[in-house]
Amino acid sequence: MKFAWIMAPETEWEEKKSYITTALESGIDHVLDLSDVENIRKLGSINVISNQDDADIILVGKNGEGDGTLHLPIDLDDSKDLAVASSFKRKSKIVAAYVEIDSKKHEELARKLGRVVDYLILVGSDWKVIPLENIIADLQKEKVKVIAAVSDYEEARLALETLEHGTDGILIQPQHYSEIKKIAELLDKIKSENYDLKVATLTRVEPVGSGDRVCIDTCSIMNVGEGMLIGSYSKGLFLVHSESLESEYVASRPFRVNAGPVQAYVMTPDNKTKYLSEIETGDEVLIVDDKGKTKNAIVGRVKIEKRPLILLEAEYEDTKIKTLLQNAETIRLVSDEGETVSVSDLKEGDKVMVYLDKGARHFGMSIEESIIEK
Asked: What percent of the chain has pLDDT over 90?
């Protein structure tokens, strides 16, 4: 998943602090700094990238350990940066290398460091002419995360979209506070997944007795049209609407999805699933709207209570899927016209939105394998 770090300008602490707090408010919790590590840690739960021994990620190559790539040896295997990075890795440290790309030799050094370190930060004066594509392509099979240093929105977009893969992350070196929020919004947009929802026809609607039902309360407000993908089969999930609508029986709970029984699947980020029984406070789940657009949400609370259930079976082309939901007026699916329909009003022949997965699931991950679910 794409990510962002920040390196605030080297200025008075109060001004630097404003840059870092703006980043934190935008969801960026990794800070690269060489001089104010102690002050930064006081701001909250932050991962610090620095050349100090107690840093969360040890920095090599910028005004500290290593040679800063300013005086390259003829034989790059003798680079002090490589030696220092290798030494830290032998001590089981997490290491980031900082390389200013000013020549072909700097590019070659970056590739060598990329085979040693955990993170490779690339700094260039103009990413339109720096061979970022070459470095990404050469290191794509390595475990290293490639990061491009950027100063504004356009540089960030270019770095993240270079080649089909783009860089894994960006290091924001902002010239103004507003760039931080703009880049954070770009990251959210890139990270969002789109699901191709299908219209399935209900073939069975039947009360089945009681079971342990899970309610997921998130830390986000869901709008009308948004809910979660939930179902009894990993190959097919129903779009279960949030409780964002008012009812004559209960006030709206726009943060909640009444999700179904404990054994059902729910879609989580990165096209993974979890059993509802596994979801707990602090986990991330995927909010999906009726167009298939998504956003991540943090779980604030999970409630499990015994409730009456209803069985829903639907068919799309030759594929049949099922799910169980609480049998109550406030639980809704989404129709083919984008309208919400209470499970108490559903009947055979109604059309609802579902998501079908071509693969099977192994520990929640989609895999290319046939599987029978019934």
From this structure: 63
How high is the pLDDT of residue 74?
40
Q: Do domains 3-191 and 197-367 have the same CATH topology?
A: no
> pTM for this one?
0.65
Q: Does the domain made of 3-191 have the CATH classification 3.20.20.70?
A: yes
User: In the 3-class helix/strand/coil scheme, how is the chain assigned residue by residue?
Assistant: CCEEEECCCCCCHHHHHHHHHHHHHCCCCEEECCCCHHHHHCCCCCEEEECCCCCCEEEECCCCCCCCCCCCCCCHHHCHHHHHHHHHHHCCCCEEEEEECCCHHHHHHHHHHHCCCCEEEEECCCCCCCCHHHHHHHHCCCCCEEEEEECCHHHHHHHHHCCCCCCCEEEECCCCHHHHHHHHHHHHHHHCCECCEEEEEEEEEEEEEEEEEEEEEECCCCCCCEEEEEEEECCEEEEEECECCCCCCCCCECCEEEEEECCCEEEECCCEEEEHHHCCCCCEEEEEECCCEEEEEEEEEEEEEEEEEEEEEEEECCEEEEEEEECCCCCEEEECCCCEEEHHHCCCCCEEEEEECCCEEECCEEECCCCCCC
pLDDT in tens, 233-274: 888 999 999 999 987 777 899 999 999 999 999 999 888 899
Among 197, 225, 307, 295, CA closest to 258 = 307
Place of tokens 């009003």: 345
- SS3 of 232-287: the string is EECCEEEEEECECCCCCCCCCECCEEEEEECCCEEEECCCEEEEHHHCCCCCEEEE
Instruction: Indicate left, alpha or beta for 124 from its phi (over 0: left) and psi (-120 to 50: alpha).
Output: beta
Q: Does the domain made of 197-367 have the CATH classification 1.10.1660?
A: no
Domain edges within the chain = 3-191, 197-367
Banded pLDDT at 163 (limits 50, 70, 90) = low
Placement of tokens 């830390």 in the chain: 219
What mean pLDDT value characterizes the chain?
87
